[in-house]
Structures are given as structure tokens and as C-alpha cells.
Amino acid sequence: MTVTSKMNSVSRQSVLSRLGPGGLLYAANKILAVAVPGKEEERWRSKDEGALLFKRWGRTRPSVESTPAPNPAPAAPSAQPSDLLKFLAINALELSAPASDALLKSRSEWFQLSGHPGSLAPAGPGTVWKRRAAGDHPAHNPERDAYEALASCPHMRFAIPRYYRELEYGGERFIELQDLLHGFRDPHVMDIKMGTRTFLEDEVSNARARSDLYEKMVRLDPNAPTKAEHAAGAVTKLRYMQFREQRSSSAEQGFRIEAVKLPGQPPLTDLQNVREPQQLAATVARFLGKDERARQALAERLREIRDLFERSDFFKTHEIVGSSIFIIYDDERVGAWLIDFAKTRRVPEGTQVDHRATWQQGNHEEGFLFGLDRLIHTIETAKLPSEGNEATEPDVSR
Questions:
Q1: Which domain holds residue 331?
Q2: DSSP conformation letters of 85-118
């Protein structure tokens, strides 16, 4: 539905009276952004042509302040649809609503797929705001820096969501990104955390054994601690984090499936025990169903991302920790993107990373490409269901 058609369903005067001056400026900016075609390109796999299409969904922005005025949240019309207000003013960005690193819309409600609740909120038609990671210094925003660098990279700019700007609202800082799910009603969606290591080296540099981490480990698996750890009643942060990686497919396969959403079904997020190759293949088969077209298009897109990654100067000098591959498809389009760069860091001068080598403290390898190799293989070889041969449900028992 276009912005014009939405405006026809809600009184313009009613909307403007609720937005206020600051909200009006931001809303006008959003309307112009959609109305004016830009030069950016989105890559999708066409069902009919079987080739990458370059659709012009970009936008050129008028010159405005990066920080919208912090007006009170506008009240939604009591007897009218609130969709327009949600998209134009996002209710003054009330992030207490269910939101995360992957947002989905079912009918008129946003709900969480995966990630950290409160980190994302719908901003305007086709964009989201993502909150700066907790603990980052005001002048230190690794995710913003990564998106800005990748957006200017000729190899990677089409492998990530479109990046627009950084802004401040209500005393907090956000980045504005393309909403990859904009325009979809109920697609197939999968969020995959990449790498054999999803924690930063400085997170585990303290060798002090901690009793609280020991207690967490025992709650998850009473047999996990060694005799010495049982005797001490404590484990180090490194030991605990590696234990957590080994409980999923991350340590062995270099990727883990965080969440899956199938049309007409609630999200499947309890996937901690999907770690063996056959379980991963079964989950992928369930996600793809009988759609061989989607499988072929997705595998080709991931091979393209891998090739772009290997050619990028940015990735030659950075460790990519905790990033994800975000996959979405419907009857017409198939897409995949790299997302989540809050833990991306430049490696020390003189350090070389190939993103496939085994991690050792100090070498900054994270296994991203090792995991991408395994993910592509899993998608290419998964046995899709056929008549009388339905995909096996993954074992997600705790």
C-alpha cells in the first residue's frame, strides 16, 4: 500500500495535529523519502527469470537535522487505523513494545523474532531505528562505523541493509537502517548467527574463576564442569563462553540457527539443541519446504555474499563477531543479508585473519567464512520434503 493510499484512509488533519512540529518534520521527511526514487539497489532472486534483479527502492533525503525534536508520543486515533502514525512517528519510539534485531509484522502487530528486546523499532515506511549497543561509549559506536564503512564499500554495499544515518532521540543514539521486511505480510524468515566464536576476546580476558558462571553451567548441564571445577565451584568466563558455544552448532559448524518463522505459524526460537548436521539439515528442509527454486536462489545469493566478503578490504582488517545472516523469501523473491555488527572490531596492526582458521586467544579469528561454507553446504544438500516424505521436525527438547 502506498503512502498516498494510507493518507486517504486517515484524515490528514487528524494525523498532523497529533504529530506536532517535530514529528511533522520527521514525517514529512519520511514521505518525501518514499516519494522520491533513489539510486540504491536491492538484490532479489526472481521466480520467473532466475537472475538477480536490481530494483530501485532507494531514497534521496532532504537536508534535515539528524536529531528529531523529542516531542511527547502522539496518541493514536481512537476510531481510526494507527498504522500511519506507527510508520511516520513510531509513537515517539516507545521501545517497550516487542522489538529486536529481527522484527516481523503479522496483521497490524509487531513481534519479536530473535535478538535483544528493545533494540529495534519501526521508524518509517521501509526503515527501522536500532539502539546503540549497551555499554558503548557515547563516542564509540562500532556498529555505526561498520555500516558506514560497508555502505561505501563497492563489494559489500549490496550485501547489507541500506544504512542511512546516526541520530539521537530522547538522550539515546540510534542508527537508521533499511527494514528488510518492509512490504511483506507473512514470509519465510530465518536468522542465523555466524561464527565459531560469538564473544569478543576482551570479554574473556579475565582469568578469574567465578562461582556465578559455575552455577549457570551446572544449571544447563550438571556434568559439564571438570572435577577441578566442581571442587572449586567456579569457572572462568572463557570456559563458560566456550561451553555455551559447544551446546549449539556454533563451535563445530560455525553457525547456529537462532530463529525460524514460517507463514501462518508462530516463530520457532527454541533451537538451542539443533546442533548436529542432520538436525541443521532437517531445520533447513523444513524452512524451504518443497521450494527448490528458493533453495537454488538462496545458495547462489550466499555464494555471492561469500565472494564479496573475501574481496572486501574491510573484512581483511576486522573480526566479525556475533553477526548474522538474515534470510527471507516468499513466492516471488529470495534475499539474504549480513546484519548485526555491534561486535565488529578492527584487528591489531600486522594481524591477518582469514575468517576460517581455528580461534586461539590473540589471533582474532572468528570462523565466519568457515560457518558460511558449512551453511551453504547444508542448504545445497538438505533433502527437501516430497510427496509422502515430509521434513523431520528438529529436536529442540532441552
A1: 188-205+248-381
A2: HHHHHHHHH-TTSS--SEEEEETTEEEEEES-TT
